[in-house]
Amino acid sequence: MSVPRTEPTPAPIQGTAPDPGTPIAWVTGATGGLGRAAAVNLAGLGYRVVVSGRSADRIQATVDAVVAAGGSAYPLALDVTNGPAVKAAHKAIERDLGEVQVLVCSAGTNVPNRWWDNLDPDDFTRVVETNLNSVTRCVAAVLPAMRRNGFGQIIVVSSWAGWRYMSGAGAAYGASKTALGPLVASINDQEGRRGIRATHLCPGEVDTPILLTKPVPPTPADIARMLRPEDVGSAIGYIVGLPPHVCVNEMVLTPVWNRMDVDYSAYPG
């Protein structure tokens, strides 16, 4: 007999007072890296940002960054792999703030054991739950209000591994990220006629903590050449700022010195 999952009660987190006239952006995985950069950038565009993540301390750090940038934030502790918790979180957002205009799905993970000769199927499931299934849960939560309003923006943070096969990403990460392309395309296919637009955002390597899950971590020199989280945050801000009739279906961005090219290139240099 299974025991229903419950979301733990988080420690008190200090946000900023809501403004009924401010548009709402919900960022999952906002406790660091790309999610934090997206939250700060959207706050700069005038959105009140719902900062979601599993760690109360790290949520507060993002809230502080948003406030320091002149924005306002609504902290919301959430494990996006918990379906009932996602529904409850969305209800709390609508109750306390209003309807979500922009959803950025940025929660992601990987594991060190990535090859079939050492891959744990439970790890595979955990990666898919975070990288793929959580996106489905959050998108399903916000779509009804977006349909009623005739507008909505969904940005799904994927990866170079979601655009092209990337051996080093491993089976779980590669499969979960590749599936996001058709998922986003289905949103534009079915919901674009209702004014809802979605973007499959595929960054190359970014200097974020997920690098630590690589079986062989990159060198400091390699990290220095990578994208910064702020680069991806700026791209998200650009996409969101486009006129309502414009849809960026997919965007791929990489550092100019791109290891994905260099490592597999036949060019001797």
Write a structural description.
This protein has 269 residues and is an alpha/beta fold. The protein has a single domain (24-262), classed as NAD(P)-binding Rossmann-like Domain (Rossmann fold), CATH 3.40.50. The protein is 41% helix and 15% strand. It has a 7-stranded parallel beta sheet, sandwiched between helices. The chain is globular and about 55 Å long. 41% of the residues are buried.
Q: Low-confidence stretches at least 5 residues in length (pLDDT < 50)?
A: 1-18
CATH homologous superfamily designation: NAD(P)-binding Rossmann-like Domain
- DSSP strand count: 7
Instruction: Report, as a whole number of angstroms, the end-to-end distance.
Output: 61 Å
CATH architecture assignment? 3-Layer(aba) Sandwich
Q: Major beta sheet, specifics? A: 7 strands, parallel
* Radius of gyration from the alpha-carbon trace, in angstroms: 18 Å
Tell me the strand percentage band.
Answer: 15-25%
* CATH level-3 fold name: Rossmann fold
User: What is the overall shape?
Assistant: globular
Fraction of residues in H or I helices? 40-55%
Helix-and-strand structural type: alpha/beta
Average of the residue pLDDT scores = 89
